[in-house]
Amino acid sequence: MRGTITGLESAAPFGPMLPAIYQEDEFSMRFVGGFDEVLAPVLTTLDCLIDYFDPALTPTDFLEWLASWVGIEVDESWATERRRAAVATAVEMYRMRGTISGLRANLEVLSGGQVEITDSGGVAWSTGPMGELPGEDSPRLAVRVRLAEVTERATKAIDSIVAAAKPAHVVHRVEVVES
């Protein structure tokens, strides 16, 4: 958390900016020195402000705030690098949303595992009317995720990610196995 940091020097102390008559007065220098101590963390933060918007560089306590900017929730139980990756790839994931490759990439980032997806649908075109439809009559989606450690929490999280990403009429099955 940002706040007063003992011994942090101000990048722009007020004392040398005062007129010479005040610089010679010990009380004036101590008085503005108090402002230097309080404002040093603020100036340091402003000097590094651009880094607060980069998921790879932002302080860990700002990751949740940055995640809210791109419309995702990060789980505090995840490792910091995994949370950073989720925030960094969120916009790209929105571009691929609704596709098998998008779901696979999203699950790989969010779960940290290897993902296999089987889809019953298909896409085709025909030059004539009444062509045969691709895929199967009953749409379904099967997702297998290989994780180093399988937990009930991870399984529920993966299931909710799949449920949110797929069309509502498509039945899905999630299988989480150890790798």
Low-confidence stretches: none
Which series of helices and strands comes N to C?
HHHHHHEEHE
- From the alpha-carbon coordinates, what is the Rg to the nearest angstrom? 27 Å
Described by the principal axes of the CA atoms, the overall outline is elongated
* Total DSSP helices: 7
How many β-strand stretches? 3
Distance between the termini: 37 Å
Q: How much is the average pLDDT?
A: 87
| Helix-and-strand structural type | alpha+beta
- How much of the sequence is in beta strands? 5-15%
Helix content: 40-55%
Instruction: Characterize the largest beta sheet: strand count, sense, and whether it forms a barrel.
Output: 3 strands, mixed
**Strand order in the largest sheet:** 1-2-3
Give the secondary structure arrangement, pairings included:
Layout: H1 20-23, H2 26-47, H3 49-52, H4 63-69, H5 80-95, H6 100-111, E1 114-119, E2 140-147, H7 152-165, E3 171-178
Parallel strand pairs: 2-3
Antiparallel strand pairs: 1-2
Helix pairs in contact: 5-6, 6-7
Question: What do these coordinates show?
Answer:
- The protein has 179 residues and is α+β, with helices and mostly antiparallel strands.
- The protein has 7 helices and 3 strands; from the N terminus they run H-H-H-H-H-H-E-E-H-E.
